[in-house]
């Protein structure tokens, strides 16, 4: 019986053409879906069969109705290497071990209560960032760099209870560098993933990519080992961080050391670039839309009046600010095609039959800009979310920056607080201007390449202390 596949180019792009493979992005895949007039497109990326899903209705089929058949993850070289051969939650194969690790993440690590328990870390790190901006002597500040450093520090604080002392600054810098390199490699292109395996591996070795990967994996591993050992050596922590929890589970639930480290890699990498991307794009759009900026600032400054800093307890009051964040994630889901899924066995969908082991990209970017769902889809209009029940938690398939279903993001609360608090403070404490001589139109929206799409160029803006800040 002939299998009926969704429409698409037979081979796209040609194996061996790295440049063309690099052109496979959320944007080119959206164009492909338009070209074939189909929200399901099937193609082959080198040796890898790929299904691209580009409508909210089909996303609901894949991540809700047929979720069980689409809940595997495909294997990619860098993901496997950094997670001890997929002994983690995020990239592991669907099965009993994933289920156990997922349960631990949800019940023990990423609960709303535990996220709240890290509020003092977030408060301290955000205050440090605000002080650094106030003290900056250069005309403009590199917000992209600041956002990434903040995200790294917040996640390290929660994961390891680690606040670096002055004499440990070199360690902090080293670790930030290794984390940055890890994220780059996890998003990067490896021949092994698309070419016949042996041949691809040879290319990756010859081009030096493989050595780079091995070196960074070893650096991250030795850091994780060091932290775990430090925790084993100390007794009765005042506040339980993720390592303490994991070591307890390591004893009670017989997690292996590698599973513990695999989970850490997810936490270190899952929550950093993603929240940095949202912060960058939000500030970019607010600079381009001064009315929205003014409205968000008015809301904050009226509610928080007289305080030095916005506190976490204030956050639920900011209806417009939350609408701004939703609107940013609609236009710029940080992982535009989510984290790839994989079919577990042959599965029928919309009259087509998808073969087993097909990689699946759900194009959240295309869905977020679908004119069938969103009027004026390319415009930044946060008001569309005011008084709207539409949310990003995986129930409304028009807005799925965190995915949905069994493999949906378990870190939503952690991620959202880690970006709401700095954003609220940036807008409360400062008025923002573009660098001298730059017009609003000239502020670019160029995108980086990779699983997580951030600004390609750093966002540099000029801070002016707000009236509230001048009092302090
Ligand atoms: C703005 C912040 C974040 C965004 C946009 C985001 C987005 C995503 C997406 C799109 C997925 C795949 C969902 C799917 O396949 O349906 C995912 C999975 C995941 N995320 Fe997040 N994430 C964020 C923050 C975090 C944080 C802070 C953590 C942990 C501290 C985290 C940990 C994970 C893990 C472990 C998975 C894999 C779940 C599984 O495969 O079972 N994420 N995330």
From TrEMBL:
Keywords per UniProt: Heme, Iron, Metal-binding, Monooxygenase, Oxidoreductase, Signal
SUPFAM superfamilies recorded: Cytochrome P450
Taxonomy, superkingdom: Eukaryota
GO molecular function per UniProt: heme binding; iron ion binding; monooxygenase activity; oxidoreductase activity, acting on paired donors, with incorporation or reduction of molecular oxygen
InterPro entries: Cyt_P450, Cyt_P450_CS, Cyt_P450_E_grp-I, Cyt_P450_sf
Pfam families xref list: p450
Cofactor(s) the protein requires to work: heme
Binding site for heme: 409
Membership in a protein family: Belongs to the cytochrome P450 family.
Protein name: Cytochrome P450
